[in-house]
Amino acid sequence: MHGLFYRLLNLRCFNMAKQENWIAPSILSADFSQLGKDVKDVIASGADVVHFDVMDNHYVPNLTIGPLVCDSLKNFMVREGVNAPIDVHLMVKPVDRIIGDFASAGADIITFHPEASEHIDGSLGLIKNAGLKAGLVFNPATSLSYLEHVMDKIDMILIMSVNPGFGGQAFIEQSLEKLRQARQLIDTSGRDIRLEIDGGVKAENIAAVAAAGCDTFVSGSGIFGKANAADANRYDSIIKQMRDALASA
Ligand code: DX5
Ligand code: ZN
Asked: pTM score, two decimals?
């Protein structure tokens, strides 16, 4: 019950409009024994979004975290005044049954893979009807044509620059061309749609990714893998490096 109380105090005051670059640390590479602390510190260091990777050992060959952890993390964030949206990346099949659970658990954005849903429009509707932002995720070999009839229901397009399932993989260079294509579709639509990249993003390649039209940058090992000291400022330098690289892009 106290969770609900804290939630009522929490204003969803983030804006999806494309006015700034968002850095979205993937907590897949955080220390799960101190997840709340890692999230609090990385947001305090200037990151914008909590990227929450949900894997089911079915759609992808790995098993991670679900609504219980999302709920607990959200309550912690509200209590501690950590103001950042939770961006839930569903790598699960089927999709629909779990959407309501994540909506109740404090997710702000839910994205899913079109191949994992029998009814893509219906799944997007479930997310939107719950009052959340919705998006589709495109694996390296998945066509952007899935967007054609649902652009009006989309708030985010997520381009995978690795095959989903694990952190720490190498960035697939062809993703840059796909980002450019997605950027063109977004600009033509005239809608406020975030363009997100996920997989192998580091301070070293983030400028090239931005130049291809991306505005939302997921990075797991590129952020959490860099910090070894225990102090609260341990993410300052990597987030600053990324911001500087983005400013030069
Ligand atoms: C991969 C996940 C990613 C992953 C990114 O399936 O969706 O979010 O954590 O990790 P890095 O940045 O290490 O490639
Ligand atoms: Zn992800």
From this structure: 0.95
